[in-house]
Amino acid sequence: MKKVRLSESSQTDMAIDIFKAFDRRAFIQSMVAIGGLATFGANWPASAQQARKIIIDADPGQDDAIAILVALASPELSVLGITCVAGNAPLALTQKNARMVCELAGRPDILVFAGADRPLKRPLVTAGHLHGHTGLDGYTLPDPTMPLQSQPAVEFIIETLRREPVGTVTIAALGPLTNIATALQRAPDIAGRIEEIVMMGGAYFEVGNITPTAEFNVYVDPDAAQVVFASGIKLTVVPLDVTHQVLATAARAQAMRNLPGKVGIVAASWVDFFERFDKEKYGADGAPIHDPCVIGYLLRPDLFSGRLVNVEIETVSELTVGMTVTDWWRVTRRVPNATFLRYVNAQGLFDLIIERLGRL
Ligand SMILES: [Ca+2]
Q1: Residues taking part in catalysis
Q2: Is the pLDDT of residue 34 over 90?
Q3: What radius of gyration do the chain's Cα atoms show?
Q4: Does the pLDDT value for residue 132 go beyond 90?
Q5: CB under 5 Å of ion ligand 1: residues
Q6: Whole-model pTM above 0.85?
C-alpha cells in the first residue's frame, strides 16, 4: 500500500484548521498525532517539586508589574532577584517601579538591581505613550522604602549563575535583552549554566506593535536580542502571537477588581490605564497582557503550544529592524534555536493569574 506523507506545510495547515474546528484538547491530541506542534506539560504540577529558581529581568511597566506580582505569589518559583533595564520607561523609573511592586506584594526582601540604562548600540526608545509618565500610571503607589541593591544588575546575573549549580537558574526576560546580552558578552561561561531563558518578545504572524514588523522589546535592542538568540541557550519565546490572545476583557478586569485586598484593585487599574490605548489600536475587547504570559508559561507550560524553529533578528534594515524572522514553515536549513510559542489557553491563563493575585 502506498504511503501518503503530508508535507510540513500541509501538516501545519491541518493543525490550524483543527485548532479552529475543535476544542483545545482535541487540538492538542491532533497535534501530538501528526507531530506538528509541541506541547509542554512535563514540568507541571510543580507544587510537588522544588521551587524553580528564576531571575526576573524587567522594565516595569504595568504588565511587567503584574508578572512580578504573579511570580511572587507562586510557591513554585523562587525569585532570586529582579534586574531592571531601560525600556518601557527610563531605568531610573523601572528600578523604582520594581521596588514599588515588591512592596505592594509585601516582599521588601526581594533583591532589586539596576542594569543597563540604554541599549547596546542605539539610543533608547521608550513607550511613555502606553505606560504613562511614571511607566506605571493608573494607580499611584507610595514611593518605595526598600533599597536598590548597589551591585550592578549584570554583575548579579553573572555571580548568581556562577554560584548556583549548573542548569538550575532560569531567566524570565520581560524587557529589552540588554542586561542579559551584556552578561553573556562579559562572561561567556554563564551561557552553559542557564537552565532556560523564557522571554516576552518578538512576533511573526501578529507582525509588529512598535513598527509594522517589530515587537517593542526586540526593537529597542535588536543587537542584544541577536546575542541571546545566537547563544545556544535553551530559549522559549512568548511573542505577540501569544500575548495578543490574552486579552484583559471587561469581565477579566472585573474579576481582578473583585479580589479581596488591594492588589487586585491596583492590577485592574493598571489594565484600565493601558487598555484605552490598546483598544483603539487593535479594536479588540481588552488589552493584551504581555509579560504575565512568561510567568504563566513557567507555572503552566501545558497551557501553551509552539514549535522549535530558527529565529533570526534583523539588525540592519531601516525598514524592518527588530523583526524576529521566524522560520515557522522550516523553509531554510538554519538550525532551530528557539521554541516559538503560538497558541495559549487564554482563559486558563487568566484564571491562573487571578487566582495568584488573590493570594497576595
Ligand atoms: Ca516589559
Answers
A1: 290
A2: no
A3: 19
A4: no
A5: 59, 61, 64, 174-175, 291
A6: yes
